[in-house]
Amino acid sequence: MNTKKYGKLPKSQKCRGTVLVEVLMATFIFISSSAFLFSAFNKSSTLLVAIQEHQQRYLASRMPKEREVITAPYDQQWNDVTKLGALTLEGTSTFANKTNNIR
User: CA-CA distance, 13 to 7, in Å (whole number)?
Assistant: First the structure.
């Protein structure tokens, strides 16, 4: 068996351990930051989906109520409106005076 005693390492081999530790630390930092960003993205996308579903349910429940207000229970025709005569705009003060006189 050949037994040699290894003395001092040359300079090229002394730095290999330090470089390995630096590479491992950089890899750990990269992987942990990537995992954090991926987790944050998943949480935000889940929140976005929940907000969109809530908005769709809200709009779906609101639409029938709005249709009830807009649509009249009878057929409307333009002839009905023309029987009222010419429409005029009045200021709010004129309207307030007329309502005060009614009471």
Answer: 12
- The answer to whether the predicted template modeling score (pTM) of the entire model surpasses 0.85 is no
State how far the alpha carbon of 49 is from the alpha carbons of 57, 100, 103, in Å: 12, 53, 55
To which residue do tokens 């809200």 refer?
58
- 88 in the Ramachandran plot: left (φ > 0), alpha (ψ -120 to 50) or beta? beta
Record the tokens describing residue 43, joined without a space: 């949480």
Q: What is the largest CA-CA distance in the chain?
A: 124
What is the C-alpha to C-alpha distance for residues 32 and 35, in angstroms, rounded to an integer? Answer: 5
Annotate 53-72 with b (16+ C-beta within 10 A) or e (fewer). eeeeeeeeeeeeeeeeeeee
**Single-letter amino acid, residue 22:** E
Q: What is the per-residue pLDDT across 24-82, written as a single tens digit (0 to 9) for each?
A: 999 999 999 999 999 998 889 889 999 999 999 998 888 887 777 776 666 667 676 67
- In the numeric block, the tokens 């023309």 are attached to 82
